[in-house]
Amino acid sequence: MELICPVCRKDDAIQKVSAIFSSGVQATTLELETYAQSAKGMTISKQALRLAPPAEPKKPGGLHWLLWIVGLILSFLFNGVFALSAMILLPSLAREGEASPCTACGCIGFPLGLVLPVVALVLLHSFLLKRSKSRYSREFPVWQAMMERWNRLYYCSRDDVVFDPATGESVGPEALGALLSLTPPPA
Fold this sequence. Notes:
With 187 residues, the chain is an alpha+beta fold. It has a domain at 64-136. It contains five helices and six strands; from the N terminus they run E-H-E-E-H-H-H-E-E-E-H.
């Protein structure tokens, strides 16, 4: 198979898209003069940005730990408010010579105040994780197919087009996403 640009029908100005992207991405370290600090980052050329691969789907997990922290804090706050209100309000309801209702409420309310939010957190966490895994299992194969196609693409600098030699399709770099989202050709 002869590898030529489908627009100009020449081969002298074409490069693989993945090579252009790789050469346009550089790891950098910025040394700061004050306090002997450094900052690490990446520099990406404009051309590399235009020809960037599709973003990988977000893996399951994420900020679920934050849900646990917030939930436990709210649980302790709820218990504090419950205990305080029980200590203030319920002793006035006790009759002389009887045990304070505060004791009974404290025995039941405090454990429930800890257990119920934790059970709710476990259920919410499992629901969010299941939903996240389901989304990832749908999106990951699509991303893999897009990456396979992206790795096949070439760029012609003369015509500023990206093309797939397997299908002959060509688009401008701005329409790269549309080219990648097309169904891959049969093998």
